[in-house]
Structures are given as structure tokens and as C-alpha cells.
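User: Teach me something about this protein's shape.
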Amino acid sequence: MTATEEENIYFLDFQHTGLKKLNFLEFLFNGKKDGDLLYARNEAIKQALEEAVLYRDGIPYLSPEMCLLYKSTDTEREGYQDDYDRAMAVMDRRQKRWLNDALTVMYPQGHKWRSEM
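Assistant: First, the predicted structure itself:
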């Protein structure tokens, strides 16, 4: 596990040397409090656990809006804009509103994706 320059942000990264496509697993560690999942970069941003952690065939995964919030820090990274476009096509109003509100908190000066909603 490696610490980043941001306080309390840790990640595991696996080398993908020699691969032509970016294939890796990323583990994000979030806190939780009072039934909410806390966004690691700003704990004022939170989402109810039952909305943040979804299940398909019994397998838990992070909600698309929470994933996009993490990806919002580097929208020019390969595939992130495509992920945003695909997720927006299937997210419901509540999910889109949550993402817009979270982006407003994180980027009060504005964010590329807020103008696209």
C-alpha cells in the first residue's frame, strides 16, 4: 500500500508493464460513518451506503456517480471521458444530481462535466 501526497489517501497499484492496454485493478479506501460512505478527498461529500455500494449477482461495486467523482480529478486521462459519457446515459436523475452536487463542492470554480449535465 502506498500513501499519496494527500493526507489519508492510500492506494494499491499493480504494474502493467508490457501491456498494450491499461489493465489493472485499483482499490479505493473510503471511510464510512452513520450509514454513509465518505468521499476520501472531502469527507463533507457522502452518499448513503445503500446508494454508494450497488450489487449485481451478489457482487458489490461502487456506484457510477461515485466512480465518476473519483475520475473527475483527471478528465483527460484515457477512457475517463468515455466512462463519463456511458455512465451518464444510464444513470437516473438522483445519481446525476448527486454527482452534480459533489462536483460543485469539489470544484466551486466549475468543472468540465458540470457544464455537460
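Now, about its shape. The chain has five helices and eight strands. Residues 35-116 form one domain. If you'd like, I can walk through any region in more detail.
User: That's plenty for now, thanks!
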